[in-house]
Design brief:
Layout: E1 3-8, E2 11-16, H1 19-25, E3 29-38, E4 41-51, E5 56-61, H2 67-75, E6 82-87, E7 90-91, H3 94-97, E8 100-103, H4 115-125, H5 130-143, H6 159-171, E9 177-181, H7 189-204, E10 209-212, H8 216-222, E11 225-230, E12 233-238, H9 240-246, E13 249-254, E14 269-275, E15 278-283, H10 289-298, E16 304-308, H11 312-321
């Protein structure tokens, strides 16, 4: 599989082309040149990315960046002005949409309906026979630790348990692809672990999974690839390691006797953070870590000098502010 090199701003990332695998498997999700406008406002501009079978794709961006709009277009809830969404090479139509498991950010449940009856109803809407629907409800409510609440109305549940029911609704018909909008919102740490395990299981079954989240540490930990969206455009995409290595090199320096401004004389270096003799320095393309070390030593003893790559949270801030 040949890599496709794409440049987004100052980031150059390698994103695999999954077309062959997706066509063969029939479950890969492709967002191809999708654009959407509301009057003078551009919600999406040539949004393009793929989610391969068995891939967990993190979709991140600021509020209003276009994540939810992209997902709604993928579901057919909204119509794109241009571009196309395909599942396994096939344009998404009503039949294809039945194969997608969707979890909206806003609660999409009937609050007064009982949990078990509601999940069975949704499963039958997706084409399952009644007996199969009931079996699926039993399986997923047990897996998500809400089996003891199947006879309770949704409105009587905590927000965390409502989120579990919402995930069960996305999974109950055994979908070929999962599209989840902020699935970890409002969950306690135990529920986050359960949700993460379920997504990992679906990935191991070859299901493409895309989810949006503002919990970037979680995205960094569990996702195979990440796309960062800014103002309706895909600004950076790749594995976390690809994105981190495309970002600027940073050096943590512990020089307790260094005076303020000691980094100013080092070409290509700028201070990111400085506290109690510890300085985080970013090196630009013309920066030299050995020149930085020499400057630090001139101020007195250097207790540590460590090169590091930015976290996904730091990368996100850099991309969004660029």
């Amino acid at each position: 599989m040949r890599p496709l090199w794409v440049r987004y701003g100052r980031f150059t990332t390698c994103t695999p082309t999954f077309g062959g695998a997706m066509a063969e498997d029939g479950r890969g999700l492709e967002i191809d040149g999708v654009s959407k406008r509301y009057g003078e406002v551009t919600a999406l501009a040539d949004m393009t990315f793929t989610v391969a079978p068995g891939e967990l794709f993190g979709f991140v961006g600021s509020n209003g960046a276009g994540k939810t709009t992209t997902m709604r277009i993928a579901l057919g809830v909204l119509a794109a002005d241009a571009g196309e969404v395909r599942l396994g090479g096939r344009p998404v139509d009503l039949e294809v949409r039945r194969r997608i498991g969707y979890m909206p950010e806003e609660r999409g449940l009937y609050p007064k309906m009982k949990v078990g009856a509601q999940l069975a109803y949704l499963a039958e809407l997706h084409g399952l026979m009644r007996a199969d629907a009931r079996a699926a409800v039993a399986r997923w409510t047990e897996r998500l630790d809400i089996a003891h609440r199947v006879d309770d109305a949704v409105e009587s549940l905590s927000l965390g348990n409502q989120q579990r029911v919402q995930l069960a609704a996305a999974l109950v018909h055994d979908p070929d692809v999962l599209v989840l909008d902020e699935p970890f919102s409002g969950l306690d740490p135990v529920a986050v672990d359960v949700m993460s395990d379920v997504l990992a299981e679906k990935r191991s079954e070859g299901v493409p999974v895309i989810f949006s989240s503002h919990q970037l540490d979680l995205v960094e930990r569990i996702c195979d690839r990440v796309g960062i969206v800014v103002a309706g455009r895909m600004s950076a995409v790749g594995t976390v390691e690809e994105l981190r290595h495309a970002g600027a090199v940073q050096v943590e320096v512990h020089a307790p006797q260094a005076p303020p401004g000691w980094v100013d004389a080092v070409p290509g270096a700028r201070v990111v953070q400085e506290t109690d003799g510890r300085t985080l320095v970013e090196l630009g393309p013309d920066g030299d870590d050995q020149a930085l070390l020499a400057a630090a030593l001139r101020t007195g003893p250097v207790h540590s000098f460590t090169r590091r790559r930015p976290s996904l949270t730091e990368l996100f801030r850099e991309v969004v502010s660029a």
